[in-house]
Amino acid sequence: MGAGMLIEILAFSILFGLKIVAEQKGFLLGLGSLLLIGLMIWNTVITAHIMCEALSFSFTIGALVAVIYALISIQVMDFIFPTA
Fold it and tell me: Which of 36, 47, 49, 76 could form a disulfide with 66 if both were Cys (CB 3.0 to 4.6 A apart)?
């Protein structure tokens, strides 16, 4: 819960910054995108650690479960809130 909130606060601030610099095609737009990708990877690693500790599996299996969980979450969100 705490790590997820921290990641969401960071992601929302980066998204807000990206919205401001969206008209400018340059360094800041690329940097913001890289930061968001880094946050997604960090979130997956945290989820993998939680899964491997909770299920008593190796970190590799926890990472696999975390990636599958993330992909299913994206699909469900896309189904619930389709883009135009």
Answer: 47
**Residue 77, token pair as written in the block:** 């969100």
Is the overall model pTM greater than 0.85, yes or no?
no
Structural domains counted in the chain: 1
- pLDDT tens digit sequence for 7-50: 889 888 888 888 877 777 777 778 888 988 999 999 999 989 99
Q: What is the dihedral of CA 57, 5, 69, 60, to 10 degrees?
A: -30
Residue 1 confidence (pLDDT) above 70: no
Domain that holds residue 66: 2-80
